[in-house]
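Researcher: Structure prediction, please.
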Amino acid sequence: MNSKLSFAYPLLPHEVLRAVRSFVEQDKIDEIRLRAGGKVSLTVSGKDMLLDLRTGPEDVMNCFKTAFSYSLHSHPKELRQGSITTQGGNRVGFCGKAVIENDRVESVCEISSVNIRIAREIFGVSDEIVGTCFSERPCGLLIIGPPSSGKTTLLRDISRVLGEKYSVSLIDERGELSAMYDGVPQNSVGSLTDVFFLYPKAEGIETAVRSMSPKIIIADEISGQDDVNALFYAVSSGVKIITAVHGVSLEQVSKKPGLDLLIASGAFEYAVILSENRKSEVVKIV
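Model: Predicted structure follows.
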């Protein structure tokens, strides 16, 4: 059984817990979904299946509140973003009635669905890439791939390996890299790695350079000009950067505004191109 699954047990209503614990292929469970008034579903090896169990609004709300340790006011950002990391590194997503303030979602009430995503760490997926790109010293690395191609999994494993050799600052804006819980990473991110958990990416990068003197900064998915500017700041400060971007080729992402200048500046010595089947190709840039 995936040991992370057991951390989801306290979130589940009794009947659902009994069904999950008796499920033959527990190690293949990716998600557990509870819907108010609806049937419970499991995602197993990427395929959805319904259980002959229904959960009421109270069950869903209790699961939601337990994920927040009954302290909703302490997690305003997670309420806005629609998910929270729980002990063990599992991610609990939720939806319901939006609470709107100043034309943006500030919170959620009347929770209608909860999705427990079971965390998985895949050790060793970066071995070949690290051996090729980091055999002698730190360098800049850009990971390129479409959604669900394994960019986050690869970044996490790179952090785990390089964080045993170098001072690394991990900018974990969405909480998916470190799965921090009560200040402790639930995922293996490296003994020399410092985690900036839920920081906006640009602010986290700039703060890391000023406060932690890293040799390497790892950040997931460049998404705008502010991120690019922060990465320029890190590079100009002598820090190597490892980050990811949506795309299918180096040629394609080299045309993106801002990122084109970052690539042309020599910030990245290598690029890794990922495909949807999670195969990788290492390309030397400079």
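Model: The two ends are 44 Å apart (CA to CA).
Researcher: Thanks, that helps.
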